[in-house]
Amino acid sequence: MFIKANSTHNSTDIINDPYIQVIAAEVRQRKRLDSSKMEQILLTLRTGRWLTRYELSVILGRNSQSLRERFLNPMIAKGMLQLRYPDKPNHVGQAYSATNVRQ
Asked: Who's near 48: CB < 8 A, 6+ residues apart?
């Protein structure tokens, strides 16, 4: 399934990127993971790139709604992540990045 997003990369390419797969391997292999470890992995995945919630859910093998509720929204509130479209939280191309990345 391909999700069209206003992004600088192709969803299929990023999901299949070997570097991304290595970073996400621990999350995919374990049913439960310490919250701080998950946050660390999410930040590593997003440093230097924008990823949509769908991409993250596929890469990590997790439910996208759960990722948003348990990690993405709290990390945005803490200032750890930024939204690609901060004024439009429901934007079809919404993506997340580590806060050190500028638009």
From this structure: 98, 101
Could you give phi then psi for residue 100, rounded to 5 degrees? -80, 0
- What is the reported pTM? 0.79
Question: What tens digit of pLDDT does each residue of 75-91 get?
Answer: 999 999 999 999 998 89
**Counting Cβ atoms within 10 Å, is residue 75 exposed (0-12), middle (13-18) or buried (19+)?**
buried
- What are φ and ψ of residue 80, in 5° steps? -85, -30
Helix, strand and coil percent figures for the chain, each rounded to 5: 50, 5, 45
Residues pairing with 96 in the sheet: 51, 83
Q: With contact defined as beta carbons under 8 Å apart, do 41 and 47 qualify? A: no
| Helical pair 53-60 and 35-46, crossing angle rounded to 10 deg | 120
Question: Where do the DSSP E strands lie in the chain?
Answer: 81-83, 96-98
